[in-house]
Design brief:
Blueprint (H helix, E strand, L loop, with lengths): L4 E4 L2 E7 L3 E11 L2 E7 L4 E5 L6 H11 L21 E9 L6 H7 L12 E9 L8 E10 L4 E4 L6 H4 L2 E6 L5 H4 L6 H5 L7 H21 L1 H11 L20 H4 L6 E3 L6 E3 L5 H18 L10 E7 L7 H12 L4 E6 L2 H6 L5 E7 L2 E6 L2 H12 L13 E5 L2 H15 L8 E5 L5 H13 L5 E7 L1 H7 L17 E6 L2 H7 L3 H11 L22 H10 L4 H11 L6 H14 L17
Parallel strand pairs: 5-14, 5-15, 10-13, 13-14, 17-18, 17-19, 19-20
Antiparallel strand pairs: 1-2, 3-4, 3-6, 6-7, 7-8, 8-9, 11-12, 15-16
Length: 603
């Protein structure tokens, strides 16, 4: 069995085998608002979507309870108007990331694993919760479950998982009420856990603590107030004989005590005002708390266990207090988390960015809870529909720059190509791409006028380099009052013809071939079933490549672009030019790019 070694970012000492497993499904019965529900989880991120009180938070809390993060209480038992459940159960169905568990995981499972409802190796654990006569907390037990192939269901056994086995999964709840300003002074907060070990050498620690003592003494001597306070406090001798002296220390003398007075100061740079975190808006405080949690995941989780546990992040309303572009950027951050994430959200922006297969629709129906997953066919239809609608109008009110594009395909594809050029997520920069739904002079005039009405929002038009594109800007005027033309600073001309030609001119033949053959293969009863959708590129097949991209432009362009970025292909020159215009329009707030192109094309 393979053993995987890993080093956590920023903490070279945190090495060890990876717990190569994940939670395939969670089953909950009689817990909080849930009577009976089965929730399949994605290997990466799962989004729980539904109305208030539909059961999303109950599902998060159930997972946290089963993984040992939350101590169950009497209120966790399901209640009706006239009764309380006698027992609640939470099942975790766990499977191997590959065909078999790694050696270290198999050892901790002590033989309690085997086949399951799919490929690979499986195990399952049931947590039973019952009322306690001694306290407000529930009593609980855990038991392994075994897969009954004949009945196609899991059966509870009498075998108990060890503590070492439960350490293979590390669940953490990140609540909607997160606020970094309230976390700074708490040792048990994510902030406190991150700073628990500063990694300062013994010699540096000694030197710093000497300097702290000297600075504290200087402060004490410079302020008559400290002296007056010491004299007043010394009068306690008359009431308490054990007190002989009083000394005020303006600064702590130990590094560990000093870090609890650390502040976070944020500003826009370039001589703009910087403010401590307590004076920042609730959105900044919430987002900062989220980033501190990400740091905790990288630096601390699993350091003392000899194995990196499988991380399960239970995230409640990551969109809390954030404007639409920031919500879209947070989606990318969540996708970069280690392990699995289960996200309860009310944000149409997050849902709009999510993989449709990862969405679970949670609905409360009478005494029950339904959990729906989109079938492949439904997801495909919804995906096509989503590609042809723009983001909500409300996003324009928060935009720092609007890029006007020809259609839904450009709106989905261009951000993928722009992100590496700008060195940051386009949405995080406050940039909105507006689908013009076809190049029309009338539409363009109306949109330009609307952006001016919204306070003069900066904009750039990305226009096809053909007669339709040129006609669309003819007669329109830029923000500077100059008629639009190919040379106008607010106009970027695309490649010849449309998006599909732009991708091929950039040399993305390999990526187009891969997307066509993986995502649009011939299916029975078509006689070409089993054959490649596209052959390996040669000039004589260019029309086939263009035809495929044109026929599937509602979704294929984005996938091709993502594959090109992953393969570090160079960006198309018009996209590079667009990135330069974006950077100039946002300057000096936007960061310098890490490189001009997406990357160096590999042989």
């Amino acid at each position: 069995m393979p053993i995987h070694e890993s080093t956590l970012d920023g903490n070279p000492s945190a090495t060890g085998p990876i717990a190569d497993l994940w939670i395939d499904e969670v089953r909950v019965a009689n817990f909080r608002s849930i009577v009976d529900a089965q929730i399949p989880l994605e290997k990466g991120t799962t989004f729980l979507v539904g109305e208030n009180n539909s059961g999303k938070s109950s599902i998060l809390l159930a997972i946290a309870t089963a993984c040992g993060f939350h101590r169950p209480m009497q209120d966790d038992l399901h209640r009706t108007s006239d009764s309380v459940a006698d027992e609640a159960t939470i099942d975790l169905v766990i499977r191997s990331s590959s065909q078999e568990f790694s050696e270290v995981v198999a050892q901790r499972l002590a033989g309690n694993y085997g086949s399951g409802p799919g490929g690979g190796e499986w195990t399952a654990i049931r947590m039973n919760l019952q009322p306690s006569r001694e306290s407000a907390f529930l009593s609980w037990t855990r038991r392994y479950m075994t897969w009954d192939e004949a009945e196609r269901e899991w059966q509870e056994s009498n075998l108990v998982p060890s503590r070492q086995m439960m350490e293979l999964v590390s669940a953490h709840v990140v609540e909607a009420s997160r606020d970094l300003s309230s976390d700074l002074a708490r040792r048990t907060s994510n902030w406190g856990q991150v700073l628990a070990e500063l990694g300062i050498s013994a010699s540096d620690r000694e030197d710093l603590e000497v300097r702290l003592a000297e600075l504290g003494s200087s402060l004490r001597q410079a302020s008559p107030t400290f002296g007056a306070l010491e004299e007043e406090l010394l009068e306690m001798r008359g009431a308490q004989s054990s007190i002989e002296q009083v000394e005020i220390r303006p600064l702590p003398e130990r590094i560990e005590d000093l870090i609890h007075s650390v502040d976070v100061v944020m500003g826009g740079g370039n001589d703009s005002a910087s403010l401590p975190i307590r004076l920042q808006g609730s959105g900044s405080r919430s987002l900062a708390a989220l980033r501190v949690y990400f740091a905790l995941c990288k630096l601390r989780i699993g350091v003392d266990q000899g194995i990196r546990p499988h991380l399960v992040t239970l995230l409640e309303e990551p969109e809390a207090h954030l404007h639409p572009q920031a919500q879209a950027a947070v989606h990318r951050s969540i996708q970069s988390l280690q392990g699995q994430a289960v996200v309860a959200t009310h944000s149409n922006v997050l849902v709009g960015e999510a993989d449709l297969h990862a969405i679970r629709l949670i609905r409360s129906a009478g005494e029950g809870t339904s959990v729906s997953t989109l079938t492949s066919e439904t997801a495909r239809k919804v995906a096509v529909f989503r590609r042809f609608i723009s983001r909500p109008l409300g996003e324009l009110f928060f935009a720092r720059l609007v890029i006007l594009v020809d259609g839904a395909a450009e709106r989905a594809t261009i951000p993928v190509l722009l992100d590496p050029l700008l060195g940051r997520d386009v949405s995080g920069l406050g940039v909105t791409l507006l689908d013009m739904q076809g190049q029309s002079q009338e539409w363009l005039r109306k949109v330009i006028a609307a952006l001016e009405e919204l306070g003069g929002i900066p904009w750039v038009a990305f226009v096809d380099n053909d007669s339709d594109g040129l006609n669309s800007i003819k007669g329109c005027v830029g923000s500077d009052g100059v008629p639009l033309s190919e040379a106008h600073p607010q106009v970027v001309m695309s490649g010849k013809k449309q998006l599909e030609q732009l991708l091929l001119e950039a040399g993305y033949y390999q990526e187009v071939e891969m997307v066509a053959n993986e995502h649009a293969s011939w299916e029975p009863p078509d006689p070409r079933a089993g054959q490649p959708r596209l052959p390996k590129y040669a000039p004589k097949f260019e029309s086939d490549y263009l035809g495929f991209l044109a026929h599937t432009k509602g979704w294929s362009g984005e996938l091709v672009a993502r594959a090109a970025v992953s393969n570090r292909r160079q960006a198309p020159p018009p996209i590079v030019e667009l990135a330069n215009r974006v950077r100039g329009a946002l300057s000096p707030a936007s960061p310098a790019p890490m490189q001009l192109g997406i990357g160096v094309e590999e042989e």
